[in-house]
Amino acid sequence: MHIRPFDREDTAFASRLCEDKGRAFPALDLQTLIALEPKGCFVAEEDGEPIGLVTFLAYGKLGWIGNVVVSGEHRGRGCGRALLDAAVSCLLDRGARTVGLDATLQAVPFCSRARFFPAFEVLHMRRAGQETPQTVADSLVPMQPKDVHSVAMFDWAHFGGRRQRVLRHLLPRSPVAVVAQDATGVGGYLMARPGATGWIIGPWVCVRSAEALLTAALAHVGTDPVILAVPKVNEDALRLLRAYGFRVFYREMRMYYGDQEGCGHPQRIYAIACPEAG
């Protein structure tokens, strides 16, 4: 088995492999991940044929593992571990002190053997089409491209890494992008984008104005279904989401490798961006 950087000729294989990875949350497509991190994909091959891949993103002192996927007939033979180890090593070489990922519950033992420790559950929640709630008044403003830097700096303090590239990518794809901002600065933000089966809220990070941000998004969405994924440790988020009709339908585990100081403050994260990007 040989591990090498992703090549354009791998695109068809990689896209097919990622489509069948069994996650409940709509994914960022492979082309997007490669665009965000051109050197952030490794491919495992055997006898000259690709059999698995890993994608990852560098956020400064925090690295993120997006996908570790192996063709079915090659699973259980060490390919996944070799890919994961290669990605972690690359991220550490590029300055990361902490590496995170969201693991399916079935993959938790595999990640634990690779020295990742469980931090908290991520609860995937769904709101079926319902009547649009009344918005909560607050100092919300639409997010503009010029705001991405200040929002990213706010996000960094709570997520744990510099994901300005991800926010900049999501902004034009998010008809809902609002910031809670006043004279003291950014107090929170929320982005929402349409998906194949409804709307996806995330990322959504705040220290105040959580309900105002949520109702602004739901007012735009109308009666369409909505999904998001929230850290279980954010009890305020869970109370708010349940009050607005969200219910848990799937669970994953956020896990980290390395320095715990890079784990951020999940009590301020009301919705992740997606498993592939944190």
Description:
This protein has 278 residues and is of the alpha+beta class. It has two domains: 118 residues, Gcn5-related N-acetyltransferase (GNAT) (Aminopeptidase, 3-Layer(aba) Sandwich); 147 residues, Aminopeptidase (3-Layer(aba) Sandwich). 28% of the residues lie in helices and 35% in strands. It has eight helices and 13 strands. Strands 1, 2, 3, 4, 5, 6, 7, 8, 9, 10, 11, 12 and 13 form a 13-stranded mixed β-sheet that branches. The radius of gyration is 19 Å and the shape is globular. The chain starts with a strand and ends in a 7-residue tail after the last strand. The mean pLDDT is 91.
Shape-level CATH architecture of the largest domain:
3-Layer(aba) Sandwich
Structure classification: alpha+beta
Q: What do the pLDDT scores average to?
A: 91
Q: Number of domains in the coordinates?
A: 2
Total number of strands: 13
Return residue spans where pLDDT drops below 50 for at least 5 consecutive residues: none
For the record, give the distance between the C-alpha atoms at the N and C termini, rounded to a whole number.
29 Å
Q: What's the CATH topology name of the largest domain?
A: Aminopeptidase
Q: Superfamily at the CATH H level of the largest domain?
A: Gcn5-related N-acetyltransferase (GNAT)
Helical amount: 25-40%
The CATH class label of the largest domain is Alpha Beta
Order of helix and strand elements from N to C terminus: EHHEEEHEHEEHHEEEHEHEE
| Total DSSP helices | 8
Globular, elongated, flat, extended or rod-shaped: what is the shape? globular
How would you describe the oligomerization state of the chains in this entry? single chain
Percent of residues in β-strands: 25-35%
